[in-house]
Design a protein that fits this description.
39 helices
């Protein structure tokens, strides 16, 4: 392993060969050397096995060699081995030095054992090492990492002249224990005492500012970074960039990024990720091209962001290119990336490729299964998503999380499987999901689409403290699609008196409810409230609801006048609604006008020809009706056929 790491450097190989030769000589007693340096070299290179072999061959181990091994074990993550060696050292009557105790305290911090920390503290007091500032700093850090902030502060308070390292350690301890405000207050106290933070302190404080979500604090720490000339430190700049990215502040992040003299892959990744989060996917891909021109190679995180960008754009071709690049770069075994690729292909409509990547993933995580289930639902294969649910319950030990449960509920609503919805509702209750707003909203929608409004309303009623605008929209839409327009209107008025304000989807749901229930006056009043509120712009769908409402009520001239008045906002569906109203009320003249408008706006759809033929037939003009249908046959034009629930469900995806 060492040779592999050093093959790029001939000098490193020569040094390693020299160490290896010296070690062999020492082991045969020919050449006494400083074995502590050899142990340190092995540990620094990660060669723990050879370090242990050398240590075992030392005839008389002293406190220095033991201390080096303790630090080496910590360096390589073997905390328990470090403590075991310290115990052996104590049995051998070796007296620990300050260097030894610092290594032991690092082990205690890594293990996070407060009882062990107190034991080591007692030993420090016994050996009179409590006044050594390095030991004291390591001790207060160990207490903090064990969750014991009180004792950490007590140790800090006993320091006579705490230096920069000690002050940084106590601030870091507060941040580690989520005491972010206290960390900022303590930092300000140190600043008033003339404390000048270093890069490590600033990095810690930035974490606190991010957690507190305070723009003022973030801008203040940025000012300190500039003032104390840390703007040339790449790690600090990356943290400042991440700080603004966490606030989704693109302008500030862009200024920091463009002002960075040195950028590494983390800098570029942070900026690309921010653009993807804000759904500026095209800009993210452009920035990636700039990154490649600088000669910086992408890592797996960059690849995941690029895949997400392609998902947002629905760009299947570019998604395949990035997938191919990831394979070339050796990222194909990275599970998070595979999960992103599964989701990307699904969102781009290529479910076959998504399933291929999924099947080729040998060690699937819960995210893998969830991505595939959601992909099936999004692409119109709800039954296949339920088959995957059965498969995961048989093959894996995963429990359904909230995201997977939402996907499965969507499949149930598409198939109108009321009994399965009830079972999933029980599972959600048992798994503790009643406080998950998204799960509760999905339950309301699922029950509504299954035609059972009683449990849907019960779920809504239980959400009294966690309702959002989506909850209101789901219940209003549910009553609307099930023919209970009066209840939908009542709920709309309740919502207006609640903390949540109606959005565009709310108005669309309640206007649809009014249209299907014939509530003409209520629908017009609600539409006027939306227009006069000046907060929501009425769309084509809103206007289509009003045309449909007027047409169903027989106010055909008003419907036509409304459609002409809002010509820019009325699309083909509005004129189709008018055409349907004309068929109900036998108005041929307006029907011909509406059919003509539909043809101009959507020439590829032939449903209006059939509707106009039905209008002719409803008033006894059978010859005109037959002529229209004959012209369709002559030109070999076909209307898209209607399908039932049974034959609309496909369970095979290639």
């Amino acid at each position: 392993m060492i040779l592999k790491k050093n093959t790029k450097s001939p000098l490193a190989i020569l040094r390693l060969y020299s160490i290896h030769t010296s070690t062999q000589c020492y082991l045969h007693g020919r050449h006494p050397i400083n074995h502590s340096k050899l142990l340190s070299s092995f540990m620094k290179s990660g060669d723990v096995i050879n370090a242990e072999k050398l240590f075992e061959e030392i005839p008389q181990r002293d406190v220095v060699s033991c201390s080096v091994m303790i630090h080496g074990y910590n360096r390589n993550g073997f905390r328990r081995k470090s403590m075991e060696l310290f115990s052996q050292m104590r049995v051998s009557s070796l007296v620990p030095t300050s260097f030894t105790m610092v290594g032991v305290l690092v082990s205690v911090a890594g293990l996070g054992d407060p009882a062990l920390g107190r034991c080591v503290h007692g030993l420090i007091l016994k050996n009179g090492l409590d006044h050594d500032f390095r030991v004291a700093t390591a001790l207060l850090n160990a207490y903090a990492k064990c969750g014991n902030v009180v004792d950490s502060c007590r140790v800090f308070g006993q320091l006579e002249n705490p230096g920069l390292v000690s002050c940084s350690a106590i601030v870091s301890g507060f941040v580690y224990n989520d005491l972010f405000q206290e960390a900022v207050v303590l930092f300000n106290q140190f600043r008033r005492l003339g404390f000048v933070p270093n890069a490590a302190t600033v990095l810690t404080l930035i974490r606190a500012c991010i957690k507190l979500e305070s723009r003022l604090l973030c801008e203040s720490i940025h000012g300190i970074v500039v003032k104390i000339s840390l703007v040339l430190d790449v790690a600090v700049n990356n943290s400042v960039l991440d700080m603004y990215s966490s606030m989704l502040d693109l302008d500030s992040a862009t200024r920091v990024f463009e002002g960075m003299e040195f950028k590494d892959v983390i800098s570029w990744t942070t900026m690309i990720n921010l653009l993807v989060c804000l759904e500026y996917a095209s800009d993210a891909l452009v920035l990636f091209r700039h990154m490649r021109k600088t000669g910086i190679s992408q890592d797996v995180v960059v690849a995941m962001n690029l895949i997400s960008a392609c998902s947002i754009l629905g760009d299947l071709r570019r998604g395949r290119e990035i997938h191919a690049q990831a394979i070339v770069n050796g990222f194909q075994s990275e599970l998070p990336l595979k999960n992103s690729i599964i989701a990307m292909y699904s969102k781009c409509g290529d479910l076959d490729s998504s399933r291929t990547v999924f099947d080729q993933t040998t060690q699937k995580s819960l995210v893998s299964w969830t991505a595939m289930i959601l992909g099936c639902v999004q692409n119109g294969y709800p039954r296949e998503s339920l088959n995957l649910l059965i498969q995961i319950r048989g093959e894996e030990t995963f429990h359904l999380d909230s995201v997977m449960l939402i996907g499965v509920l969507s499949a149930c609503s598409e198939l109108a499987l009321l009994q399965l919805c009830q079972q999933l509702h029980c599972h959600a209750f048992r798994a503790g999901f009643p406080q998950y707003r998204s799960v509760q909203n999905s339950l309301i929608s699922a029950y509504s689409k299954c035609g059972d409004m009683e449990p849907a309303y019960n779920v809504f009623k239980e959400m009294i403290y966690i309702r959002d605008v989506v909850s209101w929209n789901a219940i209003i839409n549910g009553y609307g699609i099930n023919g209970h327009g009066e209840i939908a209107v009542t709920l709309y008025h309740e919502m207006r008196n609640s903390p949540e304000n109606p959005d565009a989807a709310t108005y669309l749901s309640v206007l649809n409810a009014c249209s299907h229930s014939g509530l003409l006056e209520d629908g017009l009043v609600i539409f006027n409230q939306m227009v006069e509120g000046h907060t929501i712009r009425h769309s084509e769908d809103h206007c289509g609801c009003i045309v449909d409402l007027l047409a169903r009520a027989g106010c055909l001239s008003d419907a036509s006048e409304f459609a002409n008045r809002f010509m820019e906002k009325t699309g083909p569906n509005s004129w189709r609604a008018l055409l349907s109203g004309c068929r109900l009320h036998g108005n041929v003249e307006l029907a011909e006008l509406a059919a003509r408008m539909v043809y101009e706006l959507d020439p590829g759809e032939l449903g209006q020809v059939v509707l106009l033929s039905n209008v002719y037939a409803s008033v006894g003009r059978f010859q005109d009706a037959e002529a229209l249908r004959a012209s369709m046959k002559k030109e070999e034009l076909n209307k898209n056929p209607g399908i039932s629930l049974i034959n609309s469900i496909t369970s095979h995806i290639g």
